DNA sequence: GCTGTATTGCGTACGTTATACACAGTGAGG
DNA sequence: CCTCACTGTGTATAACGTACGCAATACAGC
């Protein structure tokens, strides 16, 4: 071990460190008028009210009665603020699980919980992920997912892979659902109308000889009405959990 | 049927329509100096060379020796250009499949093909999806995925759900892989170094009593080295296909 | 051939964004 | 009291997307 005591290796951006530890109050100078927490809260309020596009540094600052540049004393760049917004918005997992809950029930509860968090705050899905950010709540969700897998006999390296697979699915399906609700249905009087309009567009564009299988789906009326979003989510979730179950059974066999 | 002959209902943005049909040459006025195709190609070249952030309307125009505003004769907004860039970048699926290919081999080939397309052009993953855009190649990939499911006995409405599930997974895993390669490894001398640094950061931040299962994973050294990205992709893909297989068997049983 | 008109490419202008930088006020440590 | 780390603020900059109007172009109808 030749690394020095400070471990500057493993330093995160100051604001993310602050989200974990709570920064100690500065020893000198005027008392801070703002708080990282309050800034993040204000930014979330803006996003919830007017969408993510409305979240600009100046708007958030105005909302707090501060100047734009004041925020940069707490956050090095807007990206950090967005990262912290995501962390605060998803919150901690519900965690009310019976101790004898099976892995499948546990992961299912986990997935539905995350799905609902996204559904409550669709703007979270509009924030592009740049890297796996180790923020407190993100890590808490990971821990909770791993916990459900504790008695499966999976290898340690398989557990985070499963959780990652699932979290990716939840994010994806939630995004799709939000897209449909937002940009899609807005243009039509009803969800069913929007879907059948989409269906007709596809029918018009696709040559039956080049797209026979798509045409079969369309002509079966699959896209003619909007079914309940929960059904779509449940479908994919069941497929994935079925797949995990195969692996769990395989590992249990030894 | 009370809809008028024009079917303005199902009209897409003009540039997307053009991508399908090829616009007919204008009857009057000066000969167009640009082409939608050439614009998209130039934009892709910029993205490939300097990343998606470098793709601005002025940069693309400069690259073609045209003025910024000239592009707006072919594209109503930057979003449309981005949509067309994605479509052109993913291209058409390879399609060289033997007629007796099983559904699982077919979907596997499909997923790996899409994965490789993303890997070749990681900037595609940085473009936020706003809605399922019916562009020619996107639809071609959908058709190809549905084709693999033609003999599974799945219900028509289940087939697109499976393809959607899979395409979401591919996109997600590819994004993760790109993130790791881009923002993560850049800061470290080697991939292994970056991973072990990340692992140490997590160890420092997480209290063993609050995050026991994560600690177990970390202490097993799972995050200490970067394994081949293909392995991670294969793992998730196998889980999903296993899950689909369960459904296919169930449907075949009747 | 002439004229009308649809359509092109272009230049200018506007509003908005993130953020670099310099500066003045603040308040505890010495 | 002085020092100086630390705060909030105002100004300035470069870049962005795009609305708008104008001049040049070339076919349709005469």
Oligomer designation:
homodimer
- SSE run of chain A: HHHHHHHHHH
DSSP helix fraction of chain A: 55-70%
Separation of termini of chain A? 39 Å
Strand elements of chain A, count = 0
Low-confidence stretches of chain A: 1-8
The proportion of residues in beta strands of chain A is under 5%
Structural commentary:
The structure is a homodimer of 254-residue chains. Chain A contains 10 helices and no strands. With 254 residues, chain A is mainly alpha-helical. The radius of gyration of chain A is 23 Å and the shape is flat. The first copy, chain A, has helices at 14-21, 36-50, 57-63, 78-90, 103-120, 136-148, 158-184, 191-205, 212-219, 229-253. The interface between A and B is large, with 71 and 71 residues. Chain A binds a DNA duplex (30 and 30 nucleotides) through residues 26-34, 56-58, 66-70, 72-73, 77-78.
What labels describe this entry?
homodimer; 254 residues; mainly alpha; 59% helix; disordered N terminus; DNA-binding
Task: Draw up the topology in text.
The structure is a homodimer of 254-residue chains.
Chain A (H helix, E strand, L loop, with lengths): L13 H8 L14 H15 L6 H7 L14 H13 L12 H18 L15 H13 L9 H27 L6 H15 L6 H8 L9 H25 L1
Helix pairs in contact in A: 2-3, 2-4, 5-6, 5-7, 7-10
Chain A binds a DNA duplex (30 and 30 nucleotides) through loops.
